[in-house]
């Protein structure tokens, strides 16, 4: 066995042990999933607050993402420059991000700088300055990025896809916003978003590294204990992918069309998610072994890349795919993709194909846990989805247990009659 294989096996055994990840709960009711590892004198923290871009005010898409970018732009008595200098002086890594359903972040530091890192995190969360000059600087950066993307076929195809798939729903809005919506965001909007989302009762935390349970509990109190209870979130109604069977062209004068396609999906919390995940690997999730990679790229040379993935939001799920090809070959590429989906609906994978998919998915799982930061982010996502602390230990067994009957059931739920919503940005011939 090679050194790499040994490390992977050791990692898998470590993260699968039910005694490795343990809950740590503080007096104010903040709970973290804790993995103590004294091997390296570092601590990695990941956290997520329920409520993200789906909570953006009407006409002000990008508000949650703008807030996330501003949280480390000064806090408490520290201006943006002073805050960043404090981080840099101790090599502390602190970052924030916003997705459709959550605002989250991560903190990584040496053990000897843990007090400083926790103090800066607490300031950023509880007392962000949101200074006018910082707001305008970040706004300008976001708008510059949005303008740069205005002629990007991939961005335009993706945005149009979500607009068609979830028309009238918060998920239809781009999480980064538009030039117009970002321009309209005010400091009051950001303050209201902060009050609604960044609250003590809405946070999930995972901590990995050389820190004991008692020390972690004290750190959690300092980082999150001063936060008020979060405000009430707007209800995000359940929805599904609309316009199946529709084909949309975003006209761009480019020689190659960028394609986005999608159909129904299965959310992570659903009992059929694991079968759907295995099915997706067979269709387009496997980097070099999937059916779409073999049929679209290897056999026909239609595209350099092609694939699919499962998208699981709080209130919607879908199977989402991508490729790009010459304008005159778009119809052929879509025909091949549709044929492969049809074959899986009619016949499913053979037993050998199914077994190879399961072997790969179980064997590669540990690679997502090869650093403290990755482990923390995996744990906090599992906590956010409420899958249970033992999910890591159960996951490979669930994949291995997937049967042909499970695959057929997942195919019926995701592929249905094979109709897809397709968006092509370019000048596809005959679409």
Automatic annotation (TrEMBL):
Domain Peptidase M16 C-terminal: 185-360
InterPro entries: Metalloenz_LuxS/M16 (IPR011249), MPP/UQCRC_Complex (IPR050361), Peptidase_M16_C (IPR007863)
PANTHER family linked: METALLOPROTEASE (PTHR11851), PROCESSING PROTEASE (PTHR11851:SF224)
Protein name as annotated: Peptidase M16
Provenance organism: Methylobacterium oryzae
């Amino acid at each position: 066995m090679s050194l790499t294989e040994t490390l992977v096996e050791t990692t898998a055994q470590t993260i699968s042990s039910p005694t490795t990840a343990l809950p740590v709960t503080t007096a104010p009711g903040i709970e973290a999933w804790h993995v103590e590892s004294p091997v390296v004198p570092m601590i990695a923290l990941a956290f997520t607050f329920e409520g993200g871009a789906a909570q953006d005010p009407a006409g002000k898409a990008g508000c949650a993402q703008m807030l996330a970018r501003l949280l480390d732009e000064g806090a408490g008595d520290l201006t943006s420059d002073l805050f960043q200098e404090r981080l840099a002086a101790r090599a502390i890594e602190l970052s924030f991000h916003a997705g459709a359903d959550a605002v989250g972040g991560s903190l990584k530091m040496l053990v000897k700088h843990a007090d400083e890192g926790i103090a800066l995190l607490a300031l950023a969360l509880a007392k962000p300055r949101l200074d006018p000059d910082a707001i305008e600087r970040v706004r300008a950066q976001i708008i510059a990025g949005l303008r740069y993307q205005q002629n990007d076929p991939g961005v335009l195809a993706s945005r149009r896809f979500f607009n068609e798939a979830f028309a009238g729903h918060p998920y239809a809005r781009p999480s980064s916003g538009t030039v117009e919506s970002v321009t309209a965001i005010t400091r009051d909007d950001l303050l209201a978003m902060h009050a609604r989302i960044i609250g003590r009762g809405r946070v999930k935390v995972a901590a990995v590294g050389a820190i004991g349970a008692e020390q972690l509990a004290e750190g959690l109190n300092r980082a999150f204990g001063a936060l008020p209870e979060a405000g009430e979130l707007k209800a995000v109604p359940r929805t599904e992918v609309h316009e199946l069977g529709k084909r949309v062209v975003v006209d761009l004068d480019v020689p190659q069309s960028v394609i986005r396609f999608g159909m129904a999906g299965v959310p992570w919390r659903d009992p059929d998610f694991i079968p759907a995940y295995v099915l997706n690997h067979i269709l387009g999730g496997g980097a070099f072994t999937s059916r779409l990679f073999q049929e679209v790229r290897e056999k026909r040379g239609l595209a350099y890349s092609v694939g699919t993935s499962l998208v699981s939001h709080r209130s919607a799920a879908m199977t989402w795919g991508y490729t790009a090809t010459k304008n005159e070959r778009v119809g052929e590429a879509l025909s091949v993709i549709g044929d492969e989906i049809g074959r899986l609906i009619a016949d499913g994978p053979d037993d050998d194909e199914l077994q190879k998919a399961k072997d790969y998915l179980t064997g590669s799982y540990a690679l997502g846990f090869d650093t403290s930061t990755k482990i923390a982010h995996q744990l906090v996502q599992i906590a956010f989805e409420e899958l249970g602390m033992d999910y890591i230990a159960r996951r490979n067994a669930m994949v291995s247990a997937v049967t042909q009957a499970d695959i057929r059931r997942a195919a019926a739920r995701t592929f249905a009659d094979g109709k897809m919503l397709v968006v092509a940005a370019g000048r596809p011939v005959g679409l």
